Amino acid sequence: MTLGYDSQLFILAFDHRGSFQKKMFGIEGEPDAAETARISDAKAVIFDGFARAIEQGAPAGEAGILVDEQFGADIARKALANGWIVAMPVERSGLDWFEFEYGDDFGRHIEEFNPTFSKILVRYNPEGDTAINRRSVEGLRRLSDWLHERDRKFLFELLVPAEPHQLERVGGDEARYDLEVRPDLMHTAIGELQDAGIEPDVWKIEGLDRREDCERIAAQARRGGRDGVGCVVLGRGANAEKVEAWLRAGAGVPGYLGFAIGRTIWWDQLKGYLAGTLERAEAAAQIAANYRRAIDVYTGAV
Questions:
Q1: What is the C-alpha separation between 278 and 258, in angstroms, rounded?
Q2: Average pLDDT over residues 229-237
Q3: Domains of the chain, CATH where assigned
Q4: Of 142, 163, 208, 275, which has the maximum CB count within 10 A?
Q5: How far apart are CA 40 and CA 45, in angstroms?
Q6: CA distance 196 to 200
Q7: Strand ranges, E, within 188-255
Q8: Residue 1: band (very low, low, confident or very high) from pLDDT cuts 50, 70, 90
Q9: DSSP state of 223
Q10: CB 204 within 8 A of CB 158
Q11: Cβ atoms < 10 Å from Cβ of 201
Q12: Using one digit for the tens of pLDDT, what is the confidence trace for 234-271?
């Protein structure tokens, strides 16, 4: 198979599970049937916003969603039936290492839905716990091999959380860590994962403030003949101003394809809907506008 992806990607991400049920709904542990229905309904509002954006002219061949099976199985099926791009997570939510959500049965779940991309989120700091990193690598290599043996696309969300000694180097300033330390760690992490035999088609990358860092990361993602591999910007729940700066930094960089943004686009709208201060239709309309705004910012900066 050919490694990589050759089109722009504008993904509305709402595959959040553990953090979503805790922070949005205050639900600890496994949700019951009624709680699950409430969470699924909230995700349906986000999907309504996505569908509205498509109706309003968002590029259907480049727009897509990232949604989970636990709370969004029906949404995924509807989107796939419409021929839209769908990415679905494979990892168990909330862990510091990679672990399959459905254990050895992961392949059956992927094949049942047949998404455009199988996605994983991994926290991997090259200077972090070597045992945790090694544990993640073993599972990731298994997934990478399984996907590519079956000609399936692989979306890899890389998070590089700061280690205590790294924060100490910048006086505990997380903004300085993001600017001065994290880009080099991301570059190293991608190289280590590639060397371990893990081959994403698209890397989902934490926002970078400097264009030259975007260029370095994209070049690393494409090193050694991986010329078709791409990168997309993730939002990390930052405010709209910050996310738009990250989009502009990456737009037009060879290898950058677009974004996969979630909470920045829909968090406040869902809060309003759940609190009863926003009607469902208005919440969806605002989500659609925020999503289209992100697309416009990215394409306008290319």
A1: 30
A2: 92
A3: 9-301 (3.20.20.70)
A4: 208
A5: 9
A6: 12
A7: 202-206, 230-234
A8: low
A9: G
A10: yes
A11: 24
A12: 988 789 999 999 999 999 999 999 999 999 999 999 99
